[in-house]
Amino acid sequence: MRSLAGLLLLVAALRPLPLRAVQLDALDAAREWKLRAVRFRGTRAVRTADLGHVMATKPRPWFAPWRRLPDFDPVAFRTDLERLSRLYRSHGYYHVRIAHDIELPAKGDAITAVVYVDEGLPVHVERVDVALGGTELPAAERTLVLEHLPIVAGRVFTEDAYNRAHVYLRTYYREHGYARVAVEKQAQLDLEHDTATVSYQVESGPPCVFGETHVRGTKAVDPAVVRRELAYDPGDPFRQSRVDRTRTNLLNLSLFHTVRLDEDRSGDSDVTVRVRVTEAPKREVRLGVGYDTEEQVRGLASWRDYDFLGGARQLGFSATASFIHRALTADFLQPHFPGRQNRTR
């Protein structure tokens, strides 16, 4: 019996001290408050991780208990509540209501922010209208486009699906040769009946081919280096993927800070491409020092020329040294050898 009484006394002693909850307006602004935790109540449609991601008010990470508790900023927290409302609306919950409590400890200055969410009913897509104007697609392609639209009648209306459908339509046309395409979107919400009517208007020009390519911005780098990385030839059918691959090819040379590809704005079937680049330093030097229990102190030094003797050839040397190992390596990269798609190292 005595042992049971002692256990009850111990549990009572270890129970947290009672908390008092207040609103932001009632919080003592003269005190410097710390944030112990942020808790959510009533969330179902949106993950708590996504809610926490959009908030500027963030507690100390669970994996770093040695860190000091962060300051609590009432102004930032009030803005966070508005961000949460916007996030829910973007997920189709336009009737969401957000409330809060600030739980004050009996002792100390570490508060807990509690966010209460009343999600309400979501808005559902009632109808999706797609008008494919301009150059007419073959019947099979037209069916394929409409069947794979990311937004579907009957589902909850979300801004993500609404925007992805817009990108999908434009990307599909451009990947199938229709470079001169414009896509407009519109959504009409009826919050009284919780429905959304979505429409897309596509206006496409004729099937296109790649025309001339003009290179701008090169100084130390030969413009021929840029032209060699083009993923298309004049007269090839236009493909958005080839434009993207060209940009990737140029960035992978490590010779340019920025790469931009623009198309002429005419309605011609020949698409003139302007490649604009900003050059980066051709040579790079790296120095580093590290430590581990096996090698103890170790060092690294490297030098690389990304345009050795021109032509985007790369020559590099690196040296590593520790109390156990020492190494000196050299490498040479010849692009487009023996073929256009090859690199010899």
Q: The CATH topology of the largest domain, please?
A: Ubiquitin-like (UB roll)
What does the average pLDDT come to? 89
Main sheet summary: 5 strands, antiparallel
Tell me the structural class: alpha+beta
Question: What is the terminal-to-terminal distance?
Answer: 81 Å
The CATH architecture term of the largest domain is: Roll
Q: How many strands?
A: 15
Any overview of this molecule?
By secondary structure, this protein is an alpha+beta fold. It contains seven helices and 15 strands. The strands form four sheets. It has a five-stranded antiparallel β-sheet, with no helix packed on it. It is flat.
Topology:
Elements: H1 2-14, E1 20-22, E2 34-41, H2 48-54, H3 74-90, E3 97-104, E4 110-118, E5 124-134, H4 139-147, H5 159-175, E6 181-190, E7 195-204, E8 209-216, H6 223-228, H7 240-252, E9 256-263, E10 270-279, E11 283-292, E12 296-305, E13 314-322, E14 326-335, E15 343-344
Parallel strand pairs: 2-4, 5-7, 8-10
Antiparallel strand pairs: 1-3, 3-4, 6-7, 9-10, 11-12, 12-13, 13-14, 14-15
Put the structure in a nutshell.
This protein has 345 residues and is α+β, with helices and mostly antiparallel strands.
Features:
flat, 4-stranded mixed beta sheet, Ubiquitin-like (UB roll), 5-stranded antiparallel beta sheet, 4 domains, 37% strand, alpha+beta, 345 residues
